[in-house]
Write a structure and sequence with these properties.
The structure is a homodimer.
Chain A lengths: L2 H15 L4 H17 L1 H17 L4 H7 L3 H16 L7 E8 L2 E9 L2 E5 L4 H13 L3 E5 L5 H16 L8 E3 L3 H7 L8 E4 L3 H9 L13 E5 L5 H13 L8 E7 H15 L4 E4 L3 H4 L3 E2 L2 H4 L7 E7 L2 H11 L4 E5 L3 H10 L4 E6 L16 E3 L7 E3 L5 E12 L2 H4 L8 E2 L6
Parallel strand pairs in A: 3-4, 3-6, 4-5, 7-8, 7-12, 8-11, 9-10, 9-11, 12-13
Antiparallel strand pairs in A: 1-2, 1-17, 2-16, 14-15
């Protein structure tokens, strides 16, 4: 099949998938989990081919580590599918109901989006997580993984496709894209694809966003800040700052800039330097460098996502100044204030424009699993549809359903009848 | 101010607007209503200038009628604002809350989208409705109305701006665009504008969608269907069909194609012809023309939004056939089934992919006011964020807020602590 055919098959399947009930979807998910478990040997074999080729090609150790998909990781994704089965069906929930008039009832009911195109990095776990989240939410999915993992991905795709279709999933609901050309073609398939979820390097995500009319949900930059307010508690704050910067520096939710209120600067800056000493390189503004001996930072630092053991530090005059800096240079991802002052915290969380705003906890918490969503398809810095970690809810939308008995608009336009517009607490069944 | 400055001013204001409580926004709305009422004379005067010029330019009567904005219509929009005051604040509602662990709480709280760009047709009412909906939902707005209404729009804009800013609204929250060049420039302002709501001709909306990276919510086509199932009740169905086609033919929710189940064709088609006789021109498929003498339809008719006293009629073999036709040619706007069979109705409503799916009522009901939303900024056929009539809810999104007490991710990564993930029924305050 070429891309167009794959897209059309996925679209066709999505209409049937939308009508599957929660129980049927869970039966399919269980059969996928079983098939992955039963075929563990052949998955490991395919993965070994990818690993050997990538080693030969001299791929860096961190990438090889992510690429490795052997027994423990396979058991991990199988466990993941089993916990997904336990989650409530996100489809078919009534979120609004209204009696428009006697015998005329309106319901807003959640439903799948349709067809989702996902481009993900070299971790084969992502293929399993994303396709099972799409199935649970009733969406068809077109998948494109990193080329390093091509053998593993093809094997996983075949197992998931065969197990699901053999168990009631509509043929065509899952499709594999294998080349960059496929991705380029997908970007123009407005008629078949409803949403693109790109994961990967900033430049790549930006490229996707700039080159498609299809809605894109994701994030390019992850420039997260931690702001130390004038009254911040020292021990608590240092613990959070250290975690936010160093717990996993390559993550999009790692803190890249620390803002320090001028009233806290003298006390805090030497301590911050101490905890990072020899591990994290500090780039400070002019006022920072009055207190500690660090490299100099300029505006380009405020715009940089290091994804490394590096951090920018800036002294700000006030909480307003901190908020302004974040709303100017932040990427609307995850932003934290460290303070004992509830009023200041609430103000910060209200005025900072970001998907996640935190009080006294590490920005590293921004993640679908940690948020209790089971898993995530990605993190969104978009301003519409879904923000922050995107789980099952972000893969659904709604449709209105109205039940009448011969009701016509003319009766209301001519004032023969008057709308009741009475909110109901009733689910569509 | 040039467009870039207008956009930046709107963005700056949007951050403050987001923090206004419901009461403050209602006070501003009331002051706008009062100012519009108090300035009725000057509004009517400006409108007269537009009307005189447009008459001289030979504008068509229906456009002149929509352009006219005198006492009754002004009183109408003032009433509209007063009912908007009564509606619940859509901002600050907690829609999800979870205890992540002891002392670590996550909340999902609704918030404004930010800055909305709206392009609307020649009705000056739209300017008032849209800007008051944006204010109530905490969004800054950039407005561009039809050039026929330029004097009226400028006057309304000035009154709304002065009354709102004089009463606590942040300066810059409302901006007027006056030229097509402004609109073209707006399409490239990804950094300042979060969402575009275009209203107007299909070609224009399509142009906007194709020429901006900013998310667009709206609809270009409104190809709505009414499907007559095999067991449809004759009297009820004819009443609905007549209303759906003729109640207001220029509306996007008017029915353009009637699908008739073959088992109902012999009985229904002559009656359909009778009710439309001399008023609505019928274009029928081959099988339709075996029963009634009408013009011939081909595939181009299934793709046509007439917005006129014209209708396509097609005989379908089954409900599946009807669903397939709609999912192929429909514009995902509003679709109706006429039947006494509940199971058939539910199946149709589940499988048809549209913002609104109806059972035994006119497609003309698809409208924010009729749905009980107070008003609407438009109708969306998008698959993400908001579908169907878009009211206050569609102008909001959410942010996550997390409250901790020095919580760090490393404690969970190292298994020193385990997540609780316990759903709460608690609002963020």
């Amino acid at each position: 099949m070429d891309m167009k055919q794959k897209g059309m098959a996925a679209k066709h399947a999505s209409l049937e998938l939308a009508a599957l009930d929660g129980n049927s979807k869970n039966i399919i998910l269980k059969s996928i989990a079983k098939a992955l478990h039963d075929n563990m040997g052949s998955i490991m074999e395919s993965n070994s081919i990818d690993l050997r080729r990538s080693e030969k090609e001299g791929l860096a150790a961190p990438i090889l580590k992510r690429l490795k998909f052997q027994q423990d990781k396979i058991e991990g994704v199988v466990d993941g599918i089993e916990s997904l089965v336990e989650l409530e069906d996100p489809v078919g929930k009534t979120t609004y109901s209204m009696e428009i008039d006697q015998g005329l009832e309106l319901f807003r009911v959640t439903c799948p989006i349709g067809v989702v195109g996902v481009i993900f990095e070299s971790r084969p776990d992502a293929l399993v997580q994303i396709s099972s989240l799409c199935l649970k939410s009733g969406n068809s999915v077109l998948l494109k993984g990193g080329s390093e993992a091509s053998e593993t991905n093809r094997k996983l795709f075949e197992i998931i496709r065969d197990a699901s279709v053999g168990c009631g999933a509509p043929e065509g609901w899952i499709q594999l894209m294998e080349t960059r050309g496929d991705v380029a073609e997908m970007l123009g398939m407005d008629d078949e694809i409803d949403l693109i979820l790109p994961r990967g390097s900033n430049a790549f995500v930006k490229y996707i966003m700039d080159n498609s009319n299809i809605p894109v949900l994701g994030h390019s930059d992850g420039i997260c800040h931690t702001y130390v307010h004038s009254d911040a508690d020292m021990d608590k704050s240092l613990k959070v700052i250290y975690d936010a910067k160093t717990q996993y520096v390559a993550a999009c939710n790692a803190t890249e800039t620390i803002l320090v209120n001028q009233a806290a600067a003298e006390e805090f800056l030497p301590e911050i330097k101490k905890i990072f000493d020899g591990k994290v390189e500090i780039f400070g503004c002019g006022r920072t460098r009055e207190y500690i001996d660090v490299k100099s930072a300029d505006e380009s630092n405020w715009k940089t996502e290091y994804l490394d053991y590096k951090v920018s530090v800036k002294v700000v005059e006030s909480i307003e100044d901190a908020i302004k800096h974040i709303n100017t240079y932040g990427s609307r991802h995850t932003e934290c204030i460290l303070t004992e002052d509830e009023k200041a915290a609430k103000r910060f969380m209200a005025l900072v424009d970001a998907a996640s705003t935190y009080w006294n906890c590490s920005t590293r918490f921004a993640d679908g699993f940690r948020y209790g969503f089971g898993a995530e398809v990605g993190i969104s810095t978009s301003k519409i549809h879904a923000r922050g970690p995107v789980g099952l809810d972000g893969l659904t939308i709604y449709k209105y359903k109205m039940l009448g008995n011969g009701h016509i608009v003319e009766d209301y336009a001519s004032k023969k009848k008057v709308f009741k517009h009475k909110r109901m607490e009733k689910a569509f069944e």
